[in-house]
Amino acid sequence: MVCLKDPLVQKVSDLYEKISKLDSLKPSKDVDMLFTQLVLTCIPPYPIDVTKLCQKIQEMRSNLIRHCGEAEGLLEKHFSTILGSFDNPLDHLEIFPYFSNYLTLSRLEYNILSQHCSDVPSRVAFLGSGPLPLTSIVLASYHMTSTIFHNYDIDPSANSMASHLVESDPDLSKRMLFHTTDVMSVTDAFKDYDVVFLAALVGMDKKEKIVVIEHLAKYMKPGALLMLRSAHGARAFLYPVVEPCDLRGFEVLTVFHPTGEVINSVVIARKSPDLSTRSIDHGYINGSLMISCKCAEIQAFNPLNQMNMIEELAMEDHLS
């Protein structure tokens, strides 16, 4: 059982105490400093299994993830407001401090997605798009330039801000659609999508996340792809973790755990015609943990070229 004696857990706990005492999580010098320290603490590879944390630390982690989610939402609103003041907001996306990370993560997700799609998807749903839908914008602008993106968010103000960012762009304004609704109320519409992206903060803990995944398993069309974000190691103090066994109703194709500045793990799975799941293999490649089905492809994380992709291999052959 991992508890406060662990040096990383102690440091995260100390930062949590300071974050909990903040009057507001809106962007400010103190907020930015504390969350930057938290992220820098959790980025380096660290041999910790969050499922083995003691109950007290489990509760702290759960609260911390919610604080991170709230702070991230407020940060996005802040910069969406600033971007919305420009005549052409999309020309100024680089003012968002983590825009380069979104460029990297979106390209990574597209490269993994393309390994499992013979054609560019025609219709994609992004669940939990928020006031600053950078993933959808980057994918639509650079990687999936004919795809129609249906962005879902429960917050009407977030959708209003997001739609304002693209309305001056003649192309994206036609291909980026925004729906204000709880994703749990969406049913038959999911059968229209080739790919569904699930944002990291839709479902703030394991139980909430599984409820959403089960809903998608019920209504997505067989063969459609689900791409979602998870976390691994110490990064699990920042975001909820999705394990392959949580994806009932899906065939898990690839789980990718980056080791660089990109925080989120990437999971891609295919909607199955039944509710069974495949067996999962584990292995380490170039310092990044890969979890993959017997028939899945393996992605390598190369520090010199983060988007480098290894040729298709069978995991059992590689590990033997």
TrEMBL record:
E.C. number(s) listed in UniProt: 2.5.1.43
Any Gene Ontology biological process: nicotianamine biosynthetic process
Pfam families assigned to the protein according to its UniProt record, in alphabetical order: NAS
Keyword S-adenosyl-L-methionine: yes
Molecular function per GO: nicotianamine synthase activity
Gene3D superfamilies: Vaccinia Virus protein VP39
UniProt-listed InterPro entries: Nicotian_synth (IPR004298), SAM-dependent_MTases_sf (IPR029063)
Domain of life of the source: Eukaryota
Keywords: S-adenosyl-L-methionine, Transferase
Reaction equation(s) it catalyzes: 3 S-adenosyl-L-methionine = nicotianamine + 3 S-methyl-5'-thioadenosine + 3 H(+)
Family of the protein in this entry: Belongs to the nicotianamine synthase (NAS)-like family.
Record's function text: Synthesizes nicotianamine, a polyamine which serves as a sensor for the physiological iron status within the plant, and/or might be involved in the transport of iron.
This protein's name: Nicotianamine synthase
Organism of provenance: Fraxinus pennsylvanica
Source lineage: Eukaryota, Viridiplantae, Streptophyta, Embryophyta, Tracheophyta
